[in-house]
Automatic annotation (TrEMBL):
Gene3D superfamilies: 6.10.140.1330. This is Na+/H+ antiporter. Na(+)/H(+) antiporter that extrudes sodium in exchange for external protons. It comes from Undibacterium aquatile. It holds the Pfam family Na_H_Exchanger. The chain crosses the membrane at residues 54-72, 84-107, 183-204, 278-296, 316-337, 357-381, 393-416. The keyword Protease does not apply. InterPro entries: Cation/H_exchanger_CPA1, Cation/H_exchanger_CPA1_bac, Cation/H_exchanger_TM, NaH_exchanger. It is a multi-pass membrane protein.
Length: 547
């Protein structure tokens, strides 16, 4: 009963925090509000919410990474694969080595292997926090795709490095050759499991659909279970559950391209996953806030155990580590972008954007859920039964870096990203127009084929012909608008105004339907059906407006 009550409180807090951000006259980053809300709940709640890292990883990480892998634009991901890999793998190794030696030198109470473990768990970035911070001042889509791709891969590389560092701290032995081979096995095995498992499930699912038909609710449940199946299978086989969840999401995307799921399934599934994403993201930051009071209470004990004089010294260490992380990221981003995006002529239209691009990418290195969950998995004792060295101190420093990186990014990113443009690759330009025109032309050809096949001697022939001509005319008008749109801003504005008028007309229709229902001139079933039709059309028009 206590657990259920606490879950309901957290769900309510996630909802309230969203309204606080929307109602605030000042741009407040949602993650910070949720962390603060979690700290308030922990301070006044009678419940003791201790975070079990293994449960945290299982409940939160697989579905969120699966969704990221599913939804991230694949063409953009592969197009910018070089900078993504340099950030996701190269930057992680650069951070682990650089920060490991720096932390060991800066804080003598932390042994070198433990310093490397802290550096490794601080290396993964959190795109959820970045997108939430930048929601009111959006980061250019291409740069956001690079940051998302980085975070998808650096979670696995950072955690693998973290495990090697912890093992070295426990045993006192480390072999670079063995670690490299193990990394390949763990990463490659996890990726392979995610691909094979998802492909097999979807293959079996399609066979069952052919036998029984497609039920949207069942399909949604299958999509919700796949990331957990991939993660648990990979972990059971001692490979990377995180990479298994990511590749499961990528495989799900390509499976959708050939599966031809029903429109109702796609729409309902999207809504369910959007809700799941909002809830899990919110609760993750709430849980971070719930840990704050307990960590703050242990400061005195940490100071005594490590010989650090005061909270001021601990805070100074947090500032130094955060500054060093940002500096190392800045250096690596400068080198990697110079070698990849800006290394050849024509790759980026405007090279004047490079300094600003460099700063936005550097400050987007926010630490979050993976760092929190990973650092809490540090063992309590060594193999000989003694206490794990500086465990509480390392956890406190990691928590402090998470909070400080969030605060710094909340201030810096909106300023740096305001009005910033990062051009898409030349190949991406006008692809939407070409695709829309090709789809409209295909629709016209299909309806014309149907029109030619309508027999003239049937009673319904005239009705069918009129309907076919009406549909063809709609598509030809859309095609003509699309072609004119390329050459005139007037027609772009015309389409926007027409779209807005259609949305207003639909709202008027819906208002009238509600009035008819209140006057008991419509029954519930017919009312829901008619309103649902209007909602579908308005949703499509609204999304066109956003794009």
């Amino acid at each position: 009963m206590q657990i259920i009550t606490m879950v309901l409180i957290l769900l309510l807090a996630v909802t309230v925090s969203s309204f606080i951000v929307r109602l605030s006259p000042v741009a407040l980053p949602l993650p910070l509000i949720q962390i603060a809300t979690g700290a308030i709940i922990a301070s006044f709640s009678p419940f003791d919410v201790s975070l079990d890292p293994s449960i945290f990883f299982l409940l939160f990480i697989p579905p969120l990474l699966f969704l990221d892998g599913w939804r991230i634009p694949k063409e953009a991901f592969f197009l910018d694969m070089k900078p993504i890999l340099m950030l996701a793998i190269g930057l992680v190794i650069f951070t682990v080595v650089g920060m490991g030696f720096l932390i060991d030198w800066l804080i003598p109470a932390i042994p070198l292997p433990v310093a490397f473990a802290l550096a490794a768990i601080l290396s993964p970035t959190d795109p959820v926090a970045v997108s939430a911070i930048a929601s009111k001042t959006p980061i250019p889509p291409r740069l956001m795709h690079i940051l998302e791709g980085e975070s998808l891969l650096n979670d696995a590389s950072g955690l693998v490095c973290f495990r090697f560092a912890v093992l070295a701290a426990l045993t006192g032995n480390f072999s670079l050759a063995k670690a490299s081979w193990t990394f390949m096995l763990v990463a490659g095995g996890g990726a392979l499991i995610g691909i094979v498992l998802t492909y097999t499930i979807n293959l079996a699912n399609r066979w069952l659909i052919r036998q029984t038909g497609e039920e949207p609710g069942v399909q949604i449940m299958i999509s919700l279970l796949i990331p957990f199946a991939a993660y648990l299978t990979a972990e059971h086989l001692n490979t990377s559950g995180i990479l298994a969840a990511v590749t499961a999401g990528v495989t799900m995307h390509y499976s959708d391209l050939t599966g031809h799921t029903l429109a109702a399934t796609r729409m309902q599934r999207r809504t369910v996953w959007d809700t799941v994403q909002m809830i899990l993201n919110g609760i993750m930051f709430m849980l971070l806030g719930l840990q704050l009071p307990r960590i703050l209470e242990s400061i005195e004990e940490i100071a005594i155990d490590t010989g650090i004089a005061s909270l001021a010294h601990l805070s100074a260490y947090i500032v130094c580590i955060t500054f060093a992380l940002t500096t190392l990221r800045l250096i690596w981003v400068w080198a990697s972008l110079k070698l990849t995006l800006f290394g050849k002529k024509g790759n980026v239209a405007d090279k004047k954007s490079f300094p600003r691009l460099l700063l936005v990418t550097a400050f987007a290195g926010v630490r979050g859920a993976i760092t929190l969950a990973g650092i809490l998995t540090l063992p309590l004792t060594m193999l000989d039964g003694t206490d794990f060295p500086a465990r509480d101190l390392v956890i406190f420093l990691a928590m402090g870096v998470i909070l400080l990186s969030l605060i710094v990014a909340s201030i810096a990113l909106p300023i740096l990203a305001a009005g910033f443009e990062f051009s898409e690759p030349v190949a991406q330009i006008n692809k939407e127009t070409v695709a829309r025109n090709a789809a409209a032309s295909a629709a016209i050809r299909r309806v014309e084929d149907l029109y030619r096949g309508i027999p003239n001697d049937q009673p319904e022939s005239l009705v069918q012909m009129e309907a076919a001509m009406h549909v063809i005319e709609l598509y030809r008008r859309r095609l003509a608008h699309g072609l004119r749109q390329n050459g005139s801003s007037h027609h772009i504005r015309e389409l926007d105004v027409e779209r807005q008028m259609r949305i207003e007309a639909l709202r008027a229709e819906r208002d009238q339907l509600y009035q008819l229902r209140l006057n008991r001139q419509l029954d519930d079933v017919l009312h829901r059906q008619l309103v649902h039709e209007i909602d579908l059309i308005e949703t499509a028009l609204t999304k066109q407006k956003q794009h």
